[in-house]
Inverse folding.
C-alpha cells in the first residue's frame, strides 16, 4: 500500500483509480445549474428519493453502467442502468446478494472504477477525474469505507499514522500539533476515548469494531460530504454492529453526511436507511422508503430477501417446514442475457419475463419496482400505494 | 420444537462436564473455556452463541480435541456415547489412534471458511473420496459412488464432482463441506459458523437443508454462531457463552421470550428485526473482558446495566432460573430475572428517525479490550502478547460508566 491519501487505499486495484473518465456528453445541461430544482426533483423514472427530505442534494448517479471484459469478446454487465441520488444527512441503502453489483456501484462512485457509461454528479457538477490531483480533490469530498477492517488498515502502521496522512493531505494541516489535535478529535468522533491511548496502537492490537472505527475516522479526516460504506458492519459481531451503526448514524447527523450504506442485511437497512434500493444482477429491481419496502416488498426478489431473513418472531416457522419449493434454484444466479434477470428464480415468471426485461415501474411518488407481474406478485402494494401516490402528484 | 420432539427424554450423546481449556502464554494461562457443563442429546440441535473471543469455537474444537498447543485442556471430561459404540468413551482420555477413529466417523466438523477448509488443488470428488476411503475403507469405486450420492443429498448436480473449489460459489462450497461432514454418517456434527460468510437467501437454503438432513439421518448438531437470531429459529436449545463460561442455557423459546441473563437480553436487543414492529435497539456497549486478567466476579459486569457491587463476588455458576417452570433453564446471574426490564440506556438505532436523540454522554467507549484469542482455527496461535497491557485501567474506566445506576432485582 503506497497511497495512504484516502480511506480507499486498502484494496489492490489502486491502479484502476487514476482516471475514471466520465462522458460529459451524456450530461444534459439543464440539470447542472438547477440544483434547487433537482434537490427535491425526480430521479430516474420520476421517482423521488425517500432520503430527499433530509437535506440538499449531494450526489447524483445517473444511468451508471459498468461492463467487465472477460476476454473472448465476452463481458459481464456488473452494473446496468443504475440511477439514484444521495442527499446530505440522508441514508440510502443498497441491498443485494454477493455479485449483485452493489460494491461495484460504490467503487464507481468512489472513482475507483472507470464507468462504461453514465454520469456521476457531485453538487450538480459532472465528475471528471482526469488527473491525480483531480482524484485527490474528489477524494476529499467522497470517501469509501470497506467491509473488512482486517485488511483495510496497514498492519505495519499505527492508528496515528493512518489518520495523520489524510489529515495532512486533505486538511492541509502542517504543524505536528495541529495534526495531533485533529487525530484526537477524529478518534473522539468515532467514540474511541481516551484517544491518546489509541494513537500508538497497531491494527492487530484493536478489536474488529475498533478497527472499523479507525477506518471511519480515516474517512472523516478528509471531511467528506459523501460517505460510501461498503458492508461496514457485516464482518463484526452482532453485538458490536449496533454500536458501530449508531456511531455512523451520529456522524451522519453531526456532519450532514450523505451516506450510501451497502449491505446484504435488509433488516439493518430497515432501521438505518431512509431509502432502500434493491439490486439484482446489477439492476435496480425495487426502490422505496425503507420501512415500506421492507414491510411490503413488491418485487419477487425483495420478497425472497425479506422471507430469508432470520425471523425470531416466527420461531422455526419456515426452517422446520423444510425449504420452499423454488428455493433450490437459488444456488447460483444464472447469467441471464435476455428478459428479466430474476426470471430463473422467480415463481411468477412467464414467457414475457423470459423475453423482455421489465423497466422500473413507478408504484408511488417515492417507490418503484421492475416487474411485469406486480399485480400478481404484490397486489396489496399496488392497491394501497396507488391511492397514496395520487395524492403526492 | 423441543417439547414436540421430546429432546429431554432422549439419550445424551455428548456430555461435557467441567470442561476447561486454557491457552498457555508467557503472561500466564488464558482461560478460554472455564468449567463448562453441557449435554447434547440424540437428534438435538444445540446453538452455541457468543461474540468473538467468547470461547465458543474453542469449546467446540476442544470437545473433539482438535486444539493444538498452546491450547491445552486443563480439566473436565467429554463423554461420548454413540450408537455404534458398546460403551461410552471419555474423549479427553483417548489415544491419538482412538481419536482418529472417533473424529469424522463419529463427530464431524463443518468449518467456517469453506474456501480455506477445502483443498484448492483437489477437485470435489477427490476430496470426498479421500475422506470416505480413510474413514470407511471403501474401494475407490464405491467411494466415488458414495461421493456422488452425497452431492445429491446437498442438492448439487453430480457434474460438479469434477469442479475445483474456486469454481464453486460460496454456498456450494459450504454445501460440499456439509456433504463431506456427512460422508461417514456421523452421530454429531459440530458446525462452526457454517453460514456466516453467505448471503441471507443462500444461508436460509443451507439451514433448511441442514434441518432436513438432520431429520432424515438423525445426527445431532452443535451449531456455533455469533448470530443468536439464527439460533432462535434453528436450535432446540441455546447455550450462551461469555468470557469462556456458559452464562445461560435454555430452549430457543425460553431464550426468546424469557431471557434471564443481562447479556442474553442485550444480545436479543442487538439485531434489527425485519418483521414486526420496529423495536428500540439497545445493543451491548463496550467489549468483552481481557481473559488474561479477568475481572473479579461476573465477567459481564463492566458492560451490564444492572450491575451492583455484589456482582464482583459471584462466581458465575449456572443455576435454574427461579421464575421458570423449566428446571433446565439455567442462568449465571443470581440477580436479574426474565421479567426485569432492560436498563434504560437509550442509545440505539430504534431512534434513527428522531434527530438529535443520541446522547453524547453515551459516547464513552471502553478501551483496551483484547483483540487476540479469537481461537477460530485449531492450532491458531493466540496472540496473547498483543493483549492490551492496560486492560485493568480500561475496566476501571468502564466501571464508572456502566453499572451502578440500576437497582438490581431482589
Amino acid at each position: 500500500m503506497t497511497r495512504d491519501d484516502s480511506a480507499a487505499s486498502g484494496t489492490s486495484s489502486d491502479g484502476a483509480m487514476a482516471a475514471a473518465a466520465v462522458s460529459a456528453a451524456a450530461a444534459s445541461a439543464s440539470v447542472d445549474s438547477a440544483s434547487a430544482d433537482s434537490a427535491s426533483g425526480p430521479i430516474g423514472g420520476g421517482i423521488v428519493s425517500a432520503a430527499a427530505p433530509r437535506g440538499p442534494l449531494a450526489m447524483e448517479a445517473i444511468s451508471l453502467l459498468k461492463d467487465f471484459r472477460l476476454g473472448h469478446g465476452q463481458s459481464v454487465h456488473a452494473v446496468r442502468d443504475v440511477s439514484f441520488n444521495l442527499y446530505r444527512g440522508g441514508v440510502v441503502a443498497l441491498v443485494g446478494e454477493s455479485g449483485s453489483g452493489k460494491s461495484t456501484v460504490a467503487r464507481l462512485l468512489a472513482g475507483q472504477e472507470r464507468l462504461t457509461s453514465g454520469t456521476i454528479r457531485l453538487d450538480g457538477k459532472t465528475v471528471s477525474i482526469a488527473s491525480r490531483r483531480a482524484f485527490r480533490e474528489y477524494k476529499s469530498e467522497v470517501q469509501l469505507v470497506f467491509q473488512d477492517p482486517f485488511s483495510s488498515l496497514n498492519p505495519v502502521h499505527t492508528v496515528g499514522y493512518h489518520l495523520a496522512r489524510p489529515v495532512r493531505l486533505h486538511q492541509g494541516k502542517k504543524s505536528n500539533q495541529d495534526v495531533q489535535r485533529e487525530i484526537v478529535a477524529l478518534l473522539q468522533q468515532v467514540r474511541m476515548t481516551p484517544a491518546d491511548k489509541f494513537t500508538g496502537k497497531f491494527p492487530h492490537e484493536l478489536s474488529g469494531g475498533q478497527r472499523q472505527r479507525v477506518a471511519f475516522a480515516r474517512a472523516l479526516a478528509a471531511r467528506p460530504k459523501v460517505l460510501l460504506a461498503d458492508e461496514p458492519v457485516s464482518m463484526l459481531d452482532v453485538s458490536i454492529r449496533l454500536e458501530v451503526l449508531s456511531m455512523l448514524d451520529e456522524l451522519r447527523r453531526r456532519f450532514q453526511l450523505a451516506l450510501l450504506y451497502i449491505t446484504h442485511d435488509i433488516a439493518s437497512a430497515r432501521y438505518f436507511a431512509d431509502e432502500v434500493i434493491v439490486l439484482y444482477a446489477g439492476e435496480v429491481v425495487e426502490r422505496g422508503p425503507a420501512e415500506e419496502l421492507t414491510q411490503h416488498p413488491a418485487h419477487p426478489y425483495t420478497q425472497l430477501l425479506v422471507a430469508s431473513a432470520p425471523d425470531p418472531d416466527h420461531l422455526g416457522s419456515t426452517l422446520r417446514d423444510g425449504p420452499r419449493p423454488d428455493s433450490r434454484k437459488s444456488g447460483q444466479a444464472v447469467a441471464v442475457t435476455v428478459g428479466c434477470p430474476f426470471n430463473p428464480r422467480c415463481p411468477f415468471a412467464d414467457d414475457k419475463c423470459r423475453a423482455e426485461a421489465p423497466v422500473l415501474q413507478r408504484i408511488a411518488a417515492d417507490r418503484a419496482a421492475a416487474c411485469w407481474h406486480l399485480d400478481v406478485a404484490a397486489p396489496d402494494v399496488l392497491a394501497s400505494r396507488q391511492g397514496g401516490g395520487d395524492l403526492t402528484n | 420444537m423441543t417439547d414436540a420432539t421430546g429432546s429431554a427424554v432422549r439419550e445424551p450423546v455428548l456430555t461435557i462436564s467441567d470442561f476447561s481449556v486454557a491457552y498457555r502464554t508467557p503472561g500466564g494461562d488464558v482461560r478460554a473455556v472455564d468449567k463448562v457443563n453441557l449435554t447434547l442429546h440424540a437428534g438435538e440441535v444445540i446453538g452455541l452463541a457468543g461474540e468473538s473471543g467468547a470461547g465458543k469455537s474453542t469449546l467446540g474444537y476442544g470437545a473433539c480435541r482438535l486444539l493444538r498447543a498452546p491450547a491445552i485442556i486443563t480439566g473436565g471430561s467429554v463423554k461420548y456415547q454413540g450408537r455404534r459404540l458398546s460403551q461410552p468413551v471419555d474423549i479427553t482420555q483417548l489415544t491419538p489412534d482412538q481419536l482418529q477413529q472417533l473424529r469424522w466417523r463419529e463427530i464431524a466438523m463443518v468449518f467456517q471458511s469453506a474456501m480455506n477448509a477445502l483443498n484448492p488443488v483437489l477437485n470435489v470428488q477427490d476430496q470426498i473420496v479421500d475422506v470416505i476411503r480413510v474413514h470407511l475403507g471403501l474401494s475407490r469405486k464405491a467411494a466415488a459412488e458414495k461421493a456422488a450420492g452425497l452431492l445429491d443429498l446437498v442438492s448439487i448436480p453430480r457434474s460438479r464432482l469434477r469442479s475445483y473449489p474456486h469454481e464453486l460459489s460460496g454456498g456450494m462450497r459450504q454445501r460440499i463441506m456439509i456433504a463431506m461432514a456427512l460422508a461417514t454418517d456421523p452421530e454429531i456434527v459440530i458446525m462452526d459458523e457454517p453460514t456466516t460468510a453467505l448471503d441471507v437467501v443462500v444461508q436460509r437454503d443451507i439451514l433448511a437443508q441442514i434441518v432436513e438432513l438432520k431429520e432424515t439421518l438423525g445426527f445431532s448438531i452443535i451449531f456455533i454462531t455469533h448470530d443468536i437470531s439464527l439460533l432462535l429459529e434453528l436450535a432446540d436449545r441455546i447455550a450462551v457463552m461469555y468470557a469462556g463460561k456458559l452464562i445461560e442455557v435454555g430452549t430457543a423459546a425460553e431464550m426468546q421470550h424469557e431471557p434471564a441473563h443481562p447479556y442474553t437480553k442485550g444480545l436479543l436487543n442487538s439485531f434489527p428485526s425485519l418483521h414486526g414492529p420496529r423495536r428500540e435497539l439497545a445493543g451491548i456497549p463496550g467489549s468483552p473482558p481481557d481473559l488474561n486478567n479477568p475481572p473479579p466476579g461476573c465477567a459481564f459486569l463492566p458492560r451490564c446495566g444492572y450491575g451492583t457491587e455484589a456482582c464482583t463476588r459471584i462466581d458465575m455458576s449456572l443455576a435454574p432460573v427461579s421464575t421458570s417452570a423449566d428446571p433446565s433453564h439455567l442462568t449465571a446471574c443470581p440477580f436479574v430475572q426474565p421479567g426485569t426490564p432492560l436498563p434504560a440506556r437509550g442509545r440505539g438505532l430504534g431512534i434513527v428517525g428522531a434527530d438529535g436523540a443520541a446522547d453524547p454522554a453515551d459516547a464513552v467507549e471502553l478501551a483496551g479490550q483484547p483483540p487476540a484469542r479469537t481461537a477460530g482455527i485449531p492450532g491458531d496461535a493466540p496472540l496473547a502478547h498483543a493483549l492490551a497491557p492496560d486492560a485493568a485501567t480500561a475496566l476501571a474506566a468502564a466501571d464508572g460508566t456502566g453499572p451502578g445506576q440500576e437497582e438490581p432485582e431482589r
